[in-house]
Amino acid sequence: MPPNAIASCPEQLPAPVARAVREFASAWASSTVRPRVHSVVRRNWLALLHAWVGDARLPLFIRRPKAGRGSVLAHESGRSLVPTDNTPANWALSLALSGKCPTLGEVRAALDADQLPVAMALHKKEKRKARFRCTRAKGAKLNRLGWKVAHIQDVGLGQLKLESAPIERLVEHFLCFLSPTNMFVVPLKWAGIAELPEVIEAVRRADEKPAKHGVAGGHQGPRTDRLR
Hints:
This protein is α+β, with helices and mostly antiparallel strands. 36% of the residues lie in helices and 9% in strands.
């Protein structure tokens, strides 16, 4: 190798390094410091989201910030789509970790009153086109508490044109995007670890097991509170 040449990254890291990454991932996934949603609350949220999808009057939130956060796009099926950033996921997981799941009626009322957050903040240009402008909501506080919200199954849509994308694909995206079952948190100052495949897989395996003592890092035992 010529002097000062930069070596290519090996396809496989040295065994001690790879082992250390896996051990770290396992330690975080099983740590009692990591907040987890109780299984009862997870089931309630899945039921809510499927009911949401089943109500054609309600828009689907789509994580596509550059499509105009808070605006309403008309899908060719007739369903309304609302582009957002990751804020709705933060809102959903914040409530779920607190043991809360809204009813479909509460979701409908919150949308009518523009009380469901669609963005961290809206630029002036976005506000002019936005139908939904809420950027803060009660319970959406994970970032303020030092947590980064991440997804287990990737929710990216690539370059799909939203208005003509298969509606089944958008529904799948919506369910993955807002389901607490598909989310976890890492320390905000270590946000990058949420992208590690080893961490994602370790969390997925850990969250498939019922919590033995309520919700790690949170209250003990399930709660099924509605929004208040």
